Amino acid sequence: MADNRVNPVPRHVAIIMDGNGRWAKERGSPRLKGHEAGAQSVRVVIKACRDAGVEFLTLYAFSVENWSRPKAEVDGLMRLLVRFMDDQEHELHENRVRLRVIGRLADLPDVVMNSLNRVMERTAGYTDHQLVLALSYGGRTEIAHAARRIAEQVKAGTLQPESVDEACVAANLYAPDIPYPDLLIRTSGEMRISNFLLWQLSYAELYVTPVCWPDFREPHFRAALDDYARRSRRFGGIEPEVKR
Ligand code: IPE
Ligand code: IPE
Ligand code: MG
User: Less Cβ around it within 10 Å: N or C end of the chain?
Assistant: First the structure.
């Protein structure tokens, strides 16, 4: 069979991990059971990224809008985050993955932030793979935050208004050193971005699967990478992208 792959493995994969609630509902279980089951999919995907050679994995774990959910669900999600850090830290070491977080981190309970900080510090030395958790994250919030930082620099006289260009905005995002996602995967079928990485996804390839997040396994991830490999990324031009 002819291999018509035109793209190499994506350097950065971002995932909207959706469908935990529906997965639980189908089983007659409380929503939190779906979130619990989703933790296993996170482990699977971290390992699959390492095996495939994906350098950056950004997971949408909690949006600024998700604070509007019932308190019991929000509290449960925060507890799960702490548990995930406790249970999975050793796997991050085994896979040599550096943990990062992006979002409005001041919103997070101290107990969550402490556990994230602990794992971030201990994994800070790994350079091959990075896991970026988007927590209390909103794309509009991030861009507004960047605008505020830029305004402060202009006010302080360290930046001229005519120097505010795309590179300047990009430099004031939460994690300016991370390349933009090449591939965005969304599970459980919704065809929307839901305020995720609005700036960074401008030229990402989108892949939506009907599979709910707790059922997402390595073959599903592989299928997304295979699909990506055959996309024609033109970036507004007319020639297929030259191999990087
Ligand atoms: C995604 O699953 C996880 C979070 C948003 C934290 P949902 O909880 O949104 O599941 P559905 O979309 O209701 O099925
Ligand atoms: C997006 O899922 C947020 C996360 C996966 C953390 P949502 O379930 O919150 O998004 P909507 O409400 O379907 O747009
Ligand atoms: Mg959802």
Answer: N
